[in-house]
Amino acid sequence: MANRYKRANLSLSFIEHDRVSGFWTWLFVLSKLPELGDTVFIVLRKQPLIFLHWYHHITVLMYSWFSYTEYTASARWFIVMNYCVHSVMYSYYALRALNFKPPRSIAMLITTLQLTQMVVGCAINIWAHGFLQTAGKNSCNISEMNIKLSIAMYFSYFVLFARFFYKTYLSTNARKGKRPIQVTASSTATSGQYIDSGSSLTGKSDVQSLLAGGQANSKIKAQ
C-alpha cells in the first residue's frame, strides 16, 4: 500500500495525463520569468539588492525550467507549496502597496511558511532518493542529478531565510523595536541598517537621505 502510494505520487502522470495539472505546471514554470521584474525595478531604482533576493529568483527559475524538461515527478509537491506560499506573500505585498498596514505577525508568518517550505522540500528529495534506492531507478521519473540539485537549493534557501528571519525578528535590533529598511515590496529586505519601528520612509529620497547620512557619519568617524 505504501509503495503504491509512493509510486502514484512519483510518477509523471500529473503532467502528461492530467491536462489541468499540466496546464498549471506550465504556467508555474513560465511565471518564474516575470518574477524577475521586481529585481529589475530594484536595480533601475538603484536600491540595495541583497544576495538572498537575486540568488533565490535566479536559481528557482533555472531549476524549474530544468525540471520541466525532465517532467520531474516530485515537482508537483514543489509547485503546490510555491503556489500556496506565494499567494499569501503577494497578497501581503498588494496590501502594502495599497497603503494598508498588516500586522508584523503576518510578515513573520510568511517567512515561517517559507522556512517550512524549504524543510518539506528537503524531506521530499530524501524520500524520492530512498524510493529510487529500494524500488529501482526506473520506478520514479526523477533523476539523481535533479535530487542533488534540488536538495542543495532547498537547503541553501533554508539557511538564507533562517538568517533573514533571525536578523529581522529575533536579533538585538529587532527586539529593541527596530526593523530593517524596507526599500521595495520584495520577499527580502536590506540587511545591516535599521530604523525605529515607529518611523516610516515615504519614498526613494528618504532612503537615499538616510543612506547618505550613514556614509557621512562613517567619513567623520574615519577622520
UniProtKB/TrEMBL annotation:
EC number(s) per entry: 2.3.1.199
Record-linked PROSITE patterns: ELO (PS01188)
Lineage: superkingdom: Eukaryota
Coiled coil (residue ranges): none
Single biological process term from Gene Ontology: fatty acid elongation, saturated fatty acid
Alphabetized UniProt keyword annotations: Fatty acid biosynthesis, Fatty acid metabolism, Lipid biosynthesis, Lipid metabolism, Membrane, Transferase, Transmembrane, Transmembrane helix
GO molecular function annotations of the record: fatty acid elongase activity
Pfam families linked: ELO (PF01151)
An annotated GO cellular component: endoplasmic reticulum membrane
Chief localization: membrane
Family in the record: Belongs to the ELO family.
PANTHER family the UniProt entry points to: ELONGATION OF VERY LONG CHAIN FATTY ACIDS PROTEIN 6, FATTY ACID ACYL TRANSFERASE-RELATED
Name the UniProt record assigns to this protein: Elongation of very long chain fatty acids protein
Record organism: Anopheles melas
